[in-house]
Amino acid sequence: QMQDSKPQQQQKAILLDLFRTRNIATITIMSLLLWFFTSVGYFGLSLSTPNWHGNAYINCFLSAVIEVPAYVIAWLLLRSLPRRYSLSGTLFLGGGVVLFVQLVPADFNILSVGLVMVGKFGITAAFSMLYVYNVELYPTLVRNMAVGATSTASRLGSIIAPYFVYLGETSCISC
User: Fold this and answer.
1) Which helix (H) or strand (E) holds 30?
2) How far apart are CA 81 and CA 166, in angstroms?
3) Can you tell me the distance from the alpha carbon of 115 to that of 101, in angstroms, rounded to the nearest whole number?
């Protein structure tokens, strides 16, 4: 027997569904913040490449080259370790090393550029893992909306990132 050719009524999801339950709301808020700050870190490091010590052209080249092994390692980590551990490990690597760069004296150009590259490696790997991790957190009904909302938060972070680069260039607050 043939069923009616009328399509079944599909449930419509709205943006507020990402905040309906406490669990989904917590996941959404944390994902929005994670995407925002990871994007600020990624684009902040990418845009500040000419400001690093040494030759600007070599720094730009190294900044681009370091992304290839970051994507390969991210793929291997996603295949072998749980998502939570691989993402948090790369975020701690990238953020910790970038914070540690501030303690390196200005005389050690190679060390500071090397540490920034390790930080860029970690943040690039984490940024690529966020797509896979974020999709798996949400139920099917709101998954596309959640990815869209977190991607919007990421783009807002990329809009603000150049201002963080500019803050690094100013040395006097009251000037």
Assistant:
1) helix 22-47
2) 37
3) 6
Alpha carbon distance 92, 100 (integer Å): 12
Indicate whether 82 pLDDT > 80: yes
CA distance 131 to 81: 16
Among 112, 30, 125, CA closest to 70: 125
Between the alpha carbon of residue 119 and those of residues 90, 95, 138, 174, 175, the distances in Å are: 9, 6, 29, 31, 31
Backbone angles phi, psi at 13, to 5 degrees: -105, 140
- Tell me how far apart the alpha carbons of residues 74 and 83 are, in angstroms, rounded to a whole number: 10
From the CB of residue 130, how many other CB atoms can be counted at a distance below 10 Å? 23
CA 137 – CA 143 distance, rounded (Å):
8
The model's pTM is 0.83
**Could you report the per-residue pLDDT of 88-104, keeping only the tens digit for each?**
999 999 999 988 888 88
CA distance from start to end of the chain: 81
